[in-house]
Amino acid sequence: MTQRKPIESWLTDMDGVLMHEGVPVPGADTFIQRLRESERPFLVLTNNSIYTPRDLSARLSRIGLDVPAENIWTSALATATFLQDQHPGGSAYVIGEAGLTTALHDAGYILTDADPDFVILGETRTYSFEALTKAIRLINKGSRFIATNPDNTGPSAEGDLPATGSVAALLTKATGKDPYFVGKPNPLMMRTGLNTIGAHSESSAMIGDRMDTDVLAGLEAGMETFLVLTGLTKPGDVEKYPYRPTRIVDSIADLVELV
Fold first, then answer.
1. Which of 135, 180, 211, 228 has the most CB atoms lying inside 10 A of its own CB?
2. Model pTM greater than 0.90?
3. Could you confirm whether 250 is annotated as catalytic?
């Protein structure tokens, strides 16, 4: 087998890796500090499209994790980058929050409900029947259907919440049209992130807590992959999948030595 190059760049998931239920994972602060001191390119990734990188940077700072906004890559940013490349200067009807609308505005997109090129579904805590009905009608009239990520549920202090994947299924059932999902496990999110920091997949690693999104996306993007057990995946779950991470560790604290 071909020996991999040394790891020069790092991508890491946020929830379940750096933090869990709003509390930082022990060792996460040290890992981020080491990355910043080494000046190695890195990104913190999230499929959540609600918040802008500045918002997320501030939220992480409040729990003691010092991550600059430019080192945060969201599914909203990946979606805007994808659309800017595929259909520059387009228009979109958007169901989502500031993280998504800001990214699309910055990419030069016009947000409208008048014959938009795309219907873009993102994360929001206030999915409205009126907005979903309009999205269905626009998709049926020919607008192309994009969704920021396929996650069916998201975490909250009270328990799981319906997320983009679940709502996308509703729109698909009503229109017969499947969306194109940009976020993990689509390796496109990883590749656009790597391009943003000038990194190469053969010398980069992905850290995640989920086999079906983080590890799969990293694997398909050609990166080394590390699974941590501080999130959703337990040791016995790994055997259910036909692929494996490069290495399984208890937490991100076990990877500090590699930076």
1. 228
2. yes
3. no
Residue 57 phi, psi dihedral angles, 5° rounding? -60, -40
Q: Count the neighbouring beta carbons within 10 Å of the beta carbon of residue 186.
A: 23
User: Per this entry, what is the length of the chain?
Assistant: 259
Grade residue 155 by pLDDT with cuts at 50, 70 and 90.
low
Catalytic residue among 13, 29, 151, 214: 13
- Residue 13 annotated to the active site: yes
Which run of H or E residues covers position 168?
Answer: helix 164-175
Residue 87 Cα distances to 136, 183, 206, angstroms: 21, 18, 29
E strands in 8-109: 9-13, 19-20, 23-24, 42-46, 72-74, 91-95
Residues 6 or more apart from 2 whose CB is under 8 A from it?
Answer: none
| Residue 93 one-letter amino acid | Y
For position 154, what pLDDT does the model report? 74
Ordered structural domains, the chain, with CATH: 9-47+184-258 (3.40.50.1000), 76-181 (3.40.50.1000)
Residues 25, 27, 32, 35: is their CA dihedral positive or negative? negative
What strand order describes the sheet that includes 118-121?
110-111, 91-95, 118-121, 144-147, 180-181
Strand, helix or coil for residue 199: coil
Tokens of 66: 């010092």
pLDDT tens digits for range 103-148? 999 999 999 999 999 999 999 988 999 999 999 999 999 999 999 9
Q: Residue 12 is which amino acid?
A: T
| Non-local CB neighbours of 152 within 8 Å, separated by 6+ positions | 162, 163, 165, 166, 169
